[in-house]
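Z., the sequence and structure:
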Amino acid sequence: MKIILLYGGKSAEHDISIISAQNIAQSIMYNYYQVQPIYITKTGQWLKGPLLEEAPATSQMLILKEATLPSWSTDPEVSSTGVRINPGQIAEEDTIVFPILHGPNGEDGTIQGFLEVLDMPYVGCGVTGSACGMDKVMSKQLFHQAGIPQVPYVAFDGREWSEDADALIQKCEGNLLYPLFIKPANMGSSVGISQATNSEELRQAVDLALKFDRRIVVEQGIKAEECEVAILGNDDAHVSVVGHLLKEVDFYDYDEKYINNTVQMEIPADLPEAVSQKIQEYALKAYRALDGHGLSRADFFVTSNHDIYINEINTMPGFTPYSMYPCLWKETGLETRDLIEELLQLALRQHEIKQSLSTPE
C-alpha cells in the first residue's frame, strides 16, 4: 500500500507541518509501505517528489522546489525537487493519505472534504470534526452542550468590530476580568493570539487577531496550569496519560513554542489520580461531541483548586519529535512507530465503514 504524506500548506503553521512530516517519515515501516511525498507550497502549489525508500535525514529535504523531473538531493542542506501536479492526480487505488497539515486549509475540514470527494481513506477526523474543532466559536458551543466546563468568553466578528468597537470593548470589560486572551477563531499554535491587561491593549490585540480571521474570541484569563491529553481511535477511542506544560511565563507565543522550543513538558502530570481521570473523561466527551476519528489532542486549564476548564481540541496536533501528542503516547506505552501504524489502520477502518453505508437510489 502507498502512503501519501501530504504536508506544508497555505497556513502560518507551514513550517511545523514540514517538521511533523519528517518525524512521521522517520517512523513509517518502509518494508510494508511506499511513501509518496506531496508538498503544498505556501502559495498553494502541489509538488510531487520521488517515492521515499527511506526516511529523509532532515526536514529541509522535504521542502521541494519545482522541476521538470523530480529528484532527491543527497545533501541534507539542499532542497529536493518535485513536479507540479493537479491535486486530483493524487487519487490512486490502494493508497491512504496522511494529511499532516496544521491550521487553515488543512485542519479545518477543507482538505478532508477534498479527500472525501476523491473517495480516499485518510488519517484523522472527518469534515465535521475537523471544521468544528478548528473553529473556536463552534467548538465552545459544542463543549457547552456536552457539559464540559470552560472559561467565560465573548465572541464577535470583524463587521461588529468595525461598526462599534467601543461597545464590544465595554461588553468584554463588563463580562470578563483582565487579563484577557484574544484569539482568531480559526487559527492554531498561538498564531495571532495576544494577552491584554487594559482597553488599549485589547483594541490592539483584536486588530492583530483580525488579520488572521474574521471572527474573534476574547477569553477571560485565569491562574491555571495547562494540561493536555492525546486521544486515539474511532468510535472506540481511548486516551493517553495527562501531560503538563511547565510554564515560566503566563503565555507562550508561536516563537517560544516552535522556534525557541522553550516549553517544557511533564509527562505524566503531577496531579491527583481523580483529577487526571476527570480530565481524560472530559477529553473523550469533547472528542465525541465533535464526532472525532483517528486522533486529536485536548487541551485544558487546571487551577490550584483543581478546577478543570477545556481550552480547545486539536484534530491534527503537531507531530514533531518534541510535540505533546506523540510524547504522551510514548509515555503511555505506544512508540511513535506503532502509533503511526495504528493511525493508518484506523483510517482504513473508517473508510470501510463509510463504504458500507447505503446510498439512496
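The first strand starts at residue 2 and ends at 8. The domain at 153-220 is CATH 3.30.1490.20 (Dna Ligase; domain 1).

Let me know what you think.
H.
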